[in-house]
Please model this.
Amino acid sequence: MSEQEVIVQAQKVKKRYESQLLKKANVVSVGIGYRERRGKLTDEIVLVVNVSTKIPRSQLAGDDVVPGIIEGVPVDVREVGQMKAW
Model:
């Protein structure tokens, strides 16, 4: 799949699942971007789910776990703290 096709697929998945993801504990935003590993961006396009605090999977209710892949699109969960609008 070309990069453009991956982006289009990620956009479709974001549109379909954003409201469900935002209902999960600590999720503050959902976007599309590049995966981050060890503080550096890779070239892998992913659905980015930003959370206020990363919590170990074992401490989350089943409904609050963010899946690692949604409809074939990889998901990257990032801790961003509390977001405030000014």
